[in-house]
Amino acid sequence: MTCLQCGAAVSRGDGRFCSHCGTALPDRPRIAEDEWATHPERFDAASASPEHASAMQRPAPAPALGTTVVAPAVFLVFWCVIGVVIIGGFAAAGGAMALFPVLLVGAGVVLVGKQIRTNLAKARAPVVRLTAVIIDERTEITTRGSGDDRSTSTHYYATLQLRDGTRREMPTTGPLAGVITRGDIGVAVTRGGDLVDFHRVQV
Fold this sequence. Notes:
The protein is an alpha+beta fold. It is built from 6 helices and 5 strands; from the N terminus they run αααααβββαββ. A hairpin with a 6-residue loop joins strand 1 (127-144) and strand 2.
């Protein structure tokens, strides 16, 4: 805010007087409880907190290369080995059907290879730390196959709001989704568009 007496930009904090000229500052307008969660003054208070400064210095979690890169790579090798065996069997039989397993294996290599490249790009992406409020969470469950072959996978998302009002929905992990709560403010640690950590600040 700006001091009405000397015109200096001052941080209100908990003080009642201008830190430059000592003039009494106007009373702070009351902020409704439902507005406080994403109010600019809450962001300012969080940014001024020692917890915030500490959180900005904490190292980001290491990328989970085992599940995002190594596992798909192992599957890709297994897929290629099985594919070669199947192709050999069809080739011995001859005919146009021998092309089918070739196309199937090729499609698998392209899809898995693309996923590995995407995961590697995310793992190598720079870490970005943002002061943000968790304003929403959601879970998406996808089902593949049917009957005994049916499998499900769960994806977690968190929506962040920044001080300027910008909102971003980001994928996150199950463990992190279990500890963040709507209304939390703190330092969001992101990498490659994913929320990889969140350090709560008490304000």
